[in-house]
Write a structure and sequence with these properties.
The complex is a heterodimer of chains A (581) and B (197). Chain A is of the alpha/beta class and 581 residues long. Chain A is 35% helix and 19% strand. Chain A contains 21 helices and 22 strands. The mean pLDDT of chain A is 97. Chain B is α/β, with parallel strands linked by helices and 197 residues long. Chain B has eight helices and six strands; from the N terminus they run E-H-E-E-E-H-E-H-H-E-H-H-H-H. The longest helix of chain B is centred in the C-terminal third of the chain and has 16 residues, at 180-195. The chains are: A alpha/beta (581), B alpha/beta (197). The interface between A and B is large, with 62 and 60 residues.
Chain lengths: 581, 197
């Protein structure tokens, strides 16, 4: 019987059935579940790498070693892994290698919405794009075959909607693929200029062979309908096209790099008007135009944000959604925020009170940029906080560094913060770095990392000691504090900012959502006789605390309070008291 | 509900309220019934207390994994404000089920905006097929307020006319043994609750 699966599960399933033996990744929404699910199969090896570059390099080695290998990451992770990717395109594979790029149109959980099909053209890779979970499973299996047949890494490009929507999948059995023999072959794998020049010739031959192959691939198909309009589409937008324009002729592409030029010409010749519906950049459209074919696309549809069926109805059919129900009051927005008991809340409360310049980073704590704490000045990419703090110091002088901190999570620090810290020490910066060590990769759903001391499979391993790492790179001032002890934290920040040398404060307390948090068995309540309605507690932005406008008093919801003890520390009237749960 | 067209169920709430489990239970049941099914979920940042939505679509052949505005047959809202936020997805003759739960969003907590206190009453007055239920209180009576999502599964299963045995089976398969009794009770109470509406 068919089984409901999110796209990510179907990808893991497809890789398992294809005989993949090794899988590597760094967690990143919307790709994370692929490795979590793959790791549960018998007879496979799966790991969280410290970052995407290492993940891909481990993947390169596993492929050279003869195993079918799956590597998964979010779209911006491919930027981190781009260096090995471009050159692995030259060497080609031994065991088949599939790289999943999980793009995020609409930026549900990302800092940009880049379209990684562009990488396919840039790095000269075969790129496949499935449009539901069944295709995700089928295409991954096909991708391993094609990777070995054409001696290329294959990119499977998916989007958030594919990754996180469920549809029915027909499963198959795992095929047992023996390891390919490993043979020393420097001309293929040592990319010295002399060898790389020869490999580039092979890459161009491969792309020519792939261009021929995709013309007849069953992953591309024409669905003839009404010939007045022909739609070229791929991925999830195909589903929206079928939903709102069931009569139209459709060319559904499963191979989005290289494109099947002859098939597209045949389709174009068979319809009066040709439109490309693609999320998000005009990757197909511009190539079709370059062949002298009259086609529309980004003149009608946006290159900003995720598509929807109603967007296509509006832009392609001129039908606007009619409002049926009208409400009398505006609906306040509901932005995401720190959970009750979150250790990050204490840090951003202190940083805001101290009015510091805060160079931020990627993780749950990026929410520290939003109200009511709104304490963060910048967030660029994974690991950027420390480099940006040093850059600000070099631009504005050491005085400015006395009121600037870099804030970075534990998993992010290991991902790419360590090199930034080395730069601070090496180039004699004086930055104060706060590592928010909550003992997990929280934002993506609590994955292990080197500093948790456990692997993806949950096995104990050697724990990366953050204090030792910081000292080893040359930071003399390293101290550890509890982020929910406001006085201790504030004192540490004040003292470390005051000194003219690099320092690291490790703000350590487990994420409130993991078992290690070992929350206290008590909740807090407001003594309404003492509360004067000053709202100081309300301003820490805890969902457990609410304001009663009529009484002008704060209250604590005992169902949400986890007893973290932050709000009693901000109350100047001692009006917040503990109660055993 | 018609066997021919696609049926659209929108489940909305606040990150952390358990909307994902509800949509997955319903999806499993409609798969058992032989439908084509698609479900869209929200993972990642919005799960941290933001507005979240799960969408279940089923019928003979389902293309889009997301529901169009104005096309939901049922909206099940775990929180009052979220019912209002997603109302424009409801069909004119669609059913709106509102859990009588208030979770203040940040602008309300900080005093920048007001929570429209009577929003559930307004919704009920303008949506012909609508009702307010107190799933959280009933779940607490069953042994844990955390089972509110399964009380709502019970209400929804009646609104969708689903075979209770099939839903119970899905709950048994998807929940850990130690909370099963509470949740099966919660499911039953949710079903009974529908009679009183």
């Amino acid at each position: 019987m068919k089984k409901l699966m999110i796209g990510n599960e179907a990808i893991a399933r497809g890789a398992y059935e294809a005989g993949a033996k090794v899988a590597t990744a760094y967690p990143g929404t919307p790709s994370t579940e692929i490795l979590e699910i793959f790791s549960r199969y018998e007879g496979v090896y799966a790991e969280w790498a410290p970052n995407e570059k290492v993940a891909l390099e481990v993947g390169c080695g596993a492929s050279m070693g003869g195993a079918r290998t799956l590597v998964a990451m979010k779209h911006v992770g491919v930027n981190v892994a781009a260096d090995p990717l471009f050159t692995f395109s030259y060497t080609g594979v031994n065991g088949g290698m599939v790289l999943v790029s999980a793009d995020d149109p609409g930026m549900f959980s990302s800092q940009n919405e880049q379209d990684n099909r562009g990488y396919g053209r840039f790095a000269k890779l075969l790129v496949l794009e499935p449009s539901d979970s069944q295709e995700a499973r089928d295409f991954v299996k096909e991708a391993f075959e094609l990777s070995e047949r054409f001696n290329t890494p294959v990119m499977l490009r998916i989007t958030t909607r594919l990754a996180h929507s469920q549809s029915l999948v027909e499963e198959g059995e795992r095929v047992d693929i023996p390891l390919k023999p490993y043979e020393k072959n420097p001309a293929k794998y040592v990319m010295l200029p002399g060898f790389a020049r020869l490999r580039h010739v092979e890459v161009e031959k491969r792309m020519a062979a792939l261009a021929e192959y995709v013309e007849n691939s069953s992953m591309n198909r024409i669905e003839w309908g009404d010939r007045k309009v022909g739609i070229i589409t791929s991925g999830i937008p195909y589903q929206y096209v079928k939903e709102v324009m069931s009569e139209a002729s459709v060319l559904k592409l499963g191979t989005v790099n290289p494109l099947p030029e002859n098939l597209i010409r045949e389709f174009a010749a068979g319809v009066d008007k040709l439109i490309v519906v693609e999320e998000l950049e005009p990757v197909i459209e511009e190539q079709v135009k370059s062949w002298g074919i009259d086609v529309q696309g980004k003149d009608i549809l946006p290159c900003i944000s995720e598509f929807t069926p109603e967007l296509l109805e509006e832009k392609l059919l001129g039908q606007a959604v009619e409002e049926v129900f009208t409400l009398s009051t505006p609906i306040p927005p509901r932005p995401p925020l720190f959970c009750p008991g979150c250790p990050h809340r204490g840090v951003f409360y202190v940083l805001k009170r101290m009015r510091l310049t805060v160079c931020g980073d990627i993780g749950c704590y990026t929410l520290g940029a939003l109200n009511p704490l709104a304490a963060m000045d910048s967030c660029i990419c994974m690991g950027a906080s420390i480099g940006t703090a040093l850059g600000i110091e070099k631009a504005r002088g050491e005085e400015f560094a006395r009121k600037t901190v870099a804030v970075i999570g534990d998993s992010t620090f290991v991902h790419s913060g360590i090199t930034g810290l080395i730069d601070v020490v090496y180039n004699q910066g004086t930055s104060t770095v706060i590592i928010l060590d909550n003992g997990t990769t929280a934002m993506t759903g609590h994955q292990e990392h080197p500093a948790t001391g456990r692997t993806l499979s949950g096995n104990d391993t050697i724990r990366l000691d953050l204090e030792q790492v910081c000292r080893a790179v040359g930071v003399n001032r390293v101290r550890t504090v509890d982020p929910l002890n406001l006085e201790e934290l504030r004192t540490a920040v004040e003292e470390e900012l005051a000194v003219g040398e690099p320092s690291v404060i490790i703000a350590r307390r487990p994420c409130a959502l993991i078992p290690q948090a070992d929350l206290e068995k008590k909740t807090y309540y407001v003594d309404t006789d003492k509360c004067k309605g000053c709202k100081l507690c309300v301003k820490i932005g805890c969902t457990g605390i609410y304001w009663e406008e009529e009484e002008k008093l704060a209250y604590i919801n005992p169902n949400l309070c986890v007893g973290c003890g932050l709000c009693p520390q901000v109350c100047k009237l001692d009006a917040i008291l503990a109660r055993e749960a | 509900m018609s066997k021919q067209a696609t049926t659209n169920i929108l489940i909305v709430g606040v990150g952390g309220q358990g909307t994902l489990l509800t949509s997955r239970v319903i999806a499993r049941v409609v798969v058992e019934l032989g439908h084509d099914v698609k479900v869209s979920e929200v993972h990642g940042m919005a799960q941290r207390g933001g507005s979240v939505v799960s969408q279940v679509r089923f019928g003979p052949r389902v293309y889009s994994p997301i529901i169009k505005e104005g096309d939901a047959d049922v909206i099940l809202a775990f929180e009052k404000l979220e019912a209002a936020r997603w109302l424009h997805y409801l069909k004119p003759d669609g059913t709106l089920i509102i859990n009588d739960e208030r979770v203040d969003p940040l602008p309300v907590m900080s005093g920048e905006a007001e929570y429209p206190e009577d929003i559930d009453q307004e919704l009920v007055s303008i949506v012909p097929r609508s009702t307010v239920v107190n799933a959280t209180e009933i779940a607490a009576e069953c042994g844990s307020s955390r089972a509110a999502n399964i009380v709502l599964v019970g209400v929804l299963s009646r609104a969708m006319d689903l075979e209770p045995a099939l839903v119970e089976q899905a709950i048994r398969e998807m929940l850990p043994e130690r909370v099963l009794d509470i949740n099966l009770k919660a499911f039953q109470r949710g079903r009974e609750l529908y009679d009183t509406l």
